[in-house]
Specification:
391 residues; two-stranded antiparallel sheet; Serine/threonine-protein phosphatase 2A activator; PTPA_sf
């Protein structure tokens, strides 16, 4: 008796018996070796949704509130700042410290200072703000004097290291332009925050951790009384705008790699704070809503006045393809009904996704200005005595 013969299933028909149309899609082409937009760390199409627990954590996080900066009074002993965060437990401890809440409260205060204001609106510009602007202009000039080296690599032009070395060599002299005689020793603490604000020269990269260092540097200047609350609008509209322009120039000139990108579920490959400040600018705007970012005429006509719109234009400049595919988070935010909700949501997201992440905060520095041991209260003085010290 012969063994039963195996029956083979006929291949599925590729033509419908009813309408004669094709029933199978053609084999997709192999993935392109050249991505359709730059910069990119992960493909932006057909991604799973972001982790639910992160979304829930952000939703349940209280909206950060503004705080007055706690001033330092001379005499004061400054120390070289060092890294203290190495684990989740360290991040949790930092999040419980007065220094954390005061720093985050400073960022919120900067955001509130620019609320419903255009970048060109008049504001108080102190000598300190003028000096800060001058420092950033000098750094931008260095880029023009140090052209990118000819190389085929897509990321990481080695000439950036020459720019970074020059910036670092001038850092102390920049600090001394800002510091009064009784705080000159503070340069040992300010220089590391300053030099870490512009990216990493070894990896030739830049990200939200470096941007946070720039905010920390401004916070240290506020604690030293060099910039005051009346300077906050100018710190955003004059100083931070120049910093953002400089970083975009560095990114495009030297092809900086995004540092620890969140992939497409981050706001941007490099920045976070301009979205916070920019959304605050647009609160209660009569005509522009979050969905207005999809209107090309609005972007073109108002991007020079509103940081959020300038960020959208820059993202569209460096990334090609459908906006919803390469920037799904920004696309989702455009569906939020009001800028006030966008701003509060971004502040919560900054606290959780930037200040609450070990890969970012492991590089953050702690010294005598931003303390690790949580004893800031002993250094609080009244405005009257601080003003007396400055006279």
């Amino acid at each position: 008796m012969e063994p039963p013969q195996e029956t083979q299933t006929p291949p599925p028909s590729t033509v419908c018996t009813k309408c004669g149309g094709p029933t199978c899609l053609p084999t997709p082409p192999p993935p392109s070796s050249t991505p359709s937009y730059i910069p990119i760390r992960f493909p932006a199409v057909n991604l799973p949704t972001p982790p639910t627990n992160i979304k829930e954590t952000i939703m349940r996080t209280p909206v950060p509130q503004s705080q007055k900066v706690e001033p330092i009074t001379p005499p004061h002993t400054f120390t070289t700042p060092s890294k203290r965060i190495h684990s989740e437990n360290d991040v949790a401890r930092f999040n419980s410290l007065p220094s954390f809440h005061n720093f985050l409260g400073f960022v919120v205060s900067l955001s509130e200072s620019i609320r419903s204001r255009k970048l060109s609106d008049p504001c108080h510009v102190s000598p300190a703000v003028e000096t800060l602007s001058s420092i950033l202009r000098s750094l931008a000039d260095y880029v023009d004097e140090i052209p990118p080296a000819p190389q085929s690599a897509r990321y990481g032009n080695i000439s950036y290291r020459a720019w970074h070395e020059r910036m670092s060599s001038e850092a102390e002299s920049f600090m001394l332009k800002l510091l009064p005689p009784y705080f000159r020793d503070a340069s040992v603490e300010l220089v590391p925050y300053f030099t870490d604000s512009f990216g990493n020269s070894s990896r030739i990269d830049y990200g939200t951790g470096h941007e946070t260092n720039f905010a920390a540097w401004l916070y240290c200047l506020a604690r030293l009384g060099i910039v005051r609350e009346e300077d906050y609008p100018a710190l955003v509209s004059r100083v931070f705008v120049k910093y953002l322009d400089l970083m975009r120039k560095l990114q495009l000139t030297y092809s900086l790699e995004p540092a620890g990108s969140h992939g497409v579920w981050g706001l941007d490959d490099y920045h976070f704070l301009p979205f916070i400040f920019g959304s605050s600018q647009l609160i209660d705007h009569k005509y522009m809503k979050p969905k207005s970012i999809h209107n090309e005429d609005i972007l073109e006509n108002f991007s020079k006045e509103y940081l959020y719109l300038s960020c959208i234009i820059f993202v569209k400049k460096v990334k090609k393809g459908l906006f919803a595919e390469h920037s799904p988070m920004l696309d989702d935010i455009s569906g939020v009904p009001s800028w006030n909700k966008v701003n509060s949501g971004l502040l919560k997201m900054y606290k959780v996704e930037v200040l609450g992440k070990v890969p970012i905060m492991q590089h953050f520095l702690f010294g005598s200005i931003i303390k690790w041991d949580g004893t800031e209260g002993s250094e609080v003085v009244s405005c009257t005595s601080l003003q007396h010290c400055h006279q």
